[in-house]
Amino acid sequence: MATIQKRGNSYKIVVSCGYDLNGKQIRRSMTWTPEPGLTRRQTEKELDRQAVLFEEQCHTGQVLDGNIKFADFAEKWFKDYAEKQLRPTTIARYRLLMPRINAAIGHIRLDKLQPHHLMQFYNNLAETGVRDDTRYKSAIDFKTLLKNHSMTKRELAKKANISVYVLNSVTRGNNISENSAQKISKTLNLPLAKLFSASTDKDTLSVNTILHHHRLISSMLSTAVKWQLIFSNPCSRVVLPKNKRKEAIYLDEDQAAQLLQALEGESLQHQVIVKMLLYTGMRRGELCGLEWKDIDFERAVISVRRSSLYLSGKGVFEDKTKNETSERCMKVSDDVIAMLRIWRAEQAKERLRLGDQWQDNDRLFTAWNGAPIRPDVITAWFHKFVTKNGLPPIHVHSLRHTNATLLIAAGTNLTTVAARLGHANTTTTSKIYAHAIKSADQAAAEALQNILHPVRKQA
Length: 459
What we know:
mainly alpha, 19 helices, 51% helix
């Protein structure tokens, strides 16, 4: 309930809005001055009305000011902005960053947050030992363990509610999170110490991770400016650590041919998945979201209308494409259409064979029972495929890079490449594929040289 204090000719109305992270009571206040000429009774009646109205505004989140702590504002930002505007996977990634952010600046009022606070935080993130998440490595031979338990990696992943990709990391001797290690330990009913050992390497954060923290804070503070809680965004006055841009990993023509040859020994679904990624340049989620109604067999056109994503605890779900320009149509070759016809017929046979077990959802690529395929399952399989066939160390997204690089090398104009990839503009394309543009430009210069100055035959 609101409390009222008389101050000269005005009244201060104070409302309690709960408690902050440190248990301190959060108060909001306003000052009301009665209009001249009001009787005492009229003043009291209007004062009560103003108090009730202000209390309702406070409790419904309509009243904010710069006094709010960053951590409290961040929660409101997630609720009122992020959950309505951002993708679930983006929100999940942002949530993982919040413990470090709140520990550093969560207690500071928005109107008191300065660039030096942020600089100190970023410098701290770059220090050795800043990682507070213990990573674990396998302490035993997991392949033998699974064999003794008569269990496949896919079965364990399903029971433990983790990705198959995580188990592949375990068997390769890579680090995994404490949460994943705990889930595996619990599922196998074995002590954590028997299965894993704590890893001490890679205890620093990358520059890219530090910049992720900065971008999230900046996005929040930009919203605070729009909501008129602060006058400017202190992130705009921060000197950021430099991040060396990594060149896109891709295959050249010979390596792409080697990959296609190696595919011949794989299942038809895996063959179609890899070829589709290579021939269209689609993102993994876009490929997983394809439905048969998106394929125009007569015009040889594929429409990208949705993305299929996966989150632990939520499972596979459908979402919009990455941005508006990502929703697009692209022409494909007759060979791609012929391949899709064969795959559709094969999938129809499998549907008939499984009968009631098949989950009909019109997706091109599915799990064994017709359920939407998990994107991370493709990633896990592709890593094994690349390793097994001695291919360059590429990942699934490298097929998208290969598609773009080969198109540019073949002389396709940048606008067309950007449109097929679903980029908002050619600037994005030119930044990512600067290497291919430079090579194509060199080839064009040499071609022009040969045209204007042909090699003279020697006498």
